[in-house]
Amino acid sequence: MARFDDRVVVVTGAGSGIGRATAIRFGSEGAIVACLDVNEAAAATTVATIGAAGGRAQAWKLDVTDAAQVDTVITAVAAELGRPTICANVAGIGKFARSEEQPVEEFRQILEVNLIGAFAVSRACLPHLLESGGCIVNTSSSAGIFGQPYNAAYCASKGGVSLMTKAMAVEYTRRGVRVNAVAPAGIDTPLTKDFDFVEGSNPREYMKMMPPTGEMGTPEMVASLIAFLASDEACYINGTIVPIDMGVTA
Ligand SMILES: NC(=O)c1ccc[n+]([C@@H]2O[C@H](COP(=O)([O-])OP(=O)(O)OC[C@H]3O[C@@H](n4cnc5c(N)ncnc54)[C@H](O)[C@@H]3O)[C@@H](O)[C@H]2O)c1
User: What whole-number distance in Å separates Cα of residue 146 and Cα of residue 2?
Assistant: First the structure.
């Protein structure tokens, strides 16, 4: 018997990087995976990968910043796959910028996706999780633990994710829903490739954000931690923000 046999798992950002690896991990351990992503084609590719390995998954296009769409998609997931028991909020964006130059709209968009999007999906899943005794795993970041230069919007969003995780954990402890978060740093994904240094800034300023060994982690490493936190083996872990960063936040 696999750890997630027949459990319905919602994964946002399932089309790329950590979300894709997480969806594949759950699929390989018996789950029925709802792969949600604003990039529908990418989510469909993840579904195909899970299917080719003998797993079960279905893709939905979902922009987590559209609260009405979130409700519609989670209702459709429950109707078509069954009641979700695990909600993995992985979708996220980021961009380095000088705070005095960053448009307010860009700051707002980063909060909308990373923080409010995770809230909207959790909110829509919670009635199902309360019925099934399920759990939420959010994706924070080392940026949700310490301040990083040129990263105010991302840090604000991930700091928000960290404390939202703790707040929901204490809110739902007695009702049987656990809420935890992973806090990665330096994972090799398209997101980190796209994080361009701010023009004229000193590369040394970014050193504290990177693993001291210089070697990046893999999306599969984070997927493994998300799966552990979502599993019954982690039944006594609640309200934690677990770093996975080769000591960046140590
Ligand atoms: N890569 C790292 O080193 C690192 C470190 C800390 C935290 N994180 C977090 O991990 C998560 C995954 O990041 P990744 O590195 O795999 O990035 P990624 O760019 O590879 O994947 C992000 C996915 O989110 C999707 N997405 C973006 N906006 C969306 C929206 N509005 N609605 C739905 N889906 C949306 C994208 O289409 C993409 O498939 C993010 O929350 C990120 O902040 C990553």
Answer: 37
Q: Give a yes or no: residue 113 inside a domain.
A: yes
Number of domains the chain contains: 1
Domain that holds residue 32: 8-244
> Residue 70 sits in a domain of what CATH number?
3.40.50.720
**Residue-level pLDDT at 211:** 92
Q: What is the per-residue pLDDT for 196? A: 84
Name the phi and psi angles at 75, rounded to 5. Answer: -65, -40
CA 18–ligand 1 middle distance (angstroms): 7
In-domain check, residue 1 = no
Ligand 1, atom 32: closest residue by C-alpha = 63
Which segments of the chain have a pLDDT < 70? none
Three-class DSSP category at 90: coil
236 is catalytic: no
